[in-house]
Amino acid sequence: MTLMHRPLSQPWLVFVAGCVMFAGECQLSAQLTESDWPQFRGWGGAGVSASRGLPLSWSATENVVWKTALPGPGASSPIVVGDKIFLTCYSGYNNPRQERGEPEQLRLHVVCLHRESGQILWNTEVAPKLPEQPSIRENHGYASSTPVSDGERVYVFFGKTGVFAFDLRGKELWRADVGSGLNGWGSAASPILFGDLVIVNASVESQSLVALDKMSGRDVWRVKDIREAWNTPVVVPLKDGRHEIVLGKLQQVVGVDPVTGGELWHCANDITWYIAPSVVVQDGIVWSIGGRSGVAAVAVRAGGRGDVTSTHRLWTSHKGSNVTSPLIHEGHLYWMHENLGIAYCAEGDTGKLVYEERLPRAGQVYASPVLADGKLYYVARIGRTFVLAAGPRFQLLATNDLDDSSTFNASPAVTGRRLLLRSDRYLYCLGSE
Q: Residues of the chain with pLDDT > 70: what percent?
């Protein structure tokens, strides 16, 4: 581990409140509230909720408020806007539980469910642009990107098929092309919002970070040379009121001006492979993890200019994850290794490991964790959820199974006192009330 010690100032308030404070980051509709979960990993992409009273334990028969069969598989996570839940699916081709089918039978779905009952309110189908990938590794499928909403519209990304805007009743408002590239791992990064822009990491499709006008879908700017990047960008608010868009790519973490699309800074991450986990941010510090060997994590202070490797890089570490994104809480960084079943906690300002604990029978873990009510929720691909205390002392509070043969790739979502878990077959709503 290489350490360069630079002290952090006081952490932000709970990130939900922080996103409300930095309203310029999101320019959200007044229809959205703190209890919503409007994008991948919730407010600000932090994976943190201020909700309390979430269930500690559940099973196939305990604390399941409802369970809804979905029109098809997918790895995208659910989002919540008011009394509605939105997610994406695909059907007709390469469903791991059905006959292979023909490419012409592939359909993409944007699905809206009622938050209280789980009833499917509408299911809008989108015809894909063909040819698509004849197969995608590990059955990640054709619906891996989580939607984002401003409370008035829902924006979704279907890789080479494009970016779409829908109203809350499922009517398509516009569609935009961000590139035609394909990859054996499929497409994964989720769209985010900044002001009047929909921002999409189209690394697979065009090696670009793309900003679209959210009312019309027209191009506003594009940043080139975004290579080997499967992660969702994050908007970083700075103390002086400015904002940056930050994401990881091959060998670098980069900061981009969200207004012009100009690169503001870049920092060597010393990670030699692609970057799938999204960055997390607190108090102007960005943490990025990725890779399978060698350096696997880096911390960098945002707000610099040019090459900031020697001035703003705080530390690097050989402990990381190649899939799951981390979260930051009270000065500590938490994440789980995608293959080893090991949960980590490290000091955010130094990278020093606080604990490194293997969880029993975890298998692979592709979902990113969420934190709510002082608890960390880690969901394994087999559907087993590990609930840990959110603190620097390792404490496994519960291990929960749904007795479901589905594959769970999606990250959880929090809505009020409930937890949403999505598999390739079902959406579960879990709650103790």
A: 93
Please determine, looking at this structure, whether the domain spanning 2-430 carries the CATH number 2.60.40.10. Answer: no
Band (pLDDT 50/70/90 cuts) for residue 103 is very high
**φ, ψ dihedrals at 138, nearest 5°:** 55, 30
pTM of the predicted model as reported, rounded to 2 decimal places: 0.92
Q: What pLDDT, on a 0 to 100 scale, did the predictor assign at position 393?
A: 97
- Rounded to whole angstroms, the Cα distance separating 307 from 314 reads 14
Question: What's the pLDDT tens digit per position in 286-297?
Answer: 999 998 788 999
45 close to 369: Cβ distance less than 8 angstroms: no
Domain boundaries, the chain: 2-430
Note the pLDDT tens digit of each residue in 356-372: 999 999 999 999 999 99
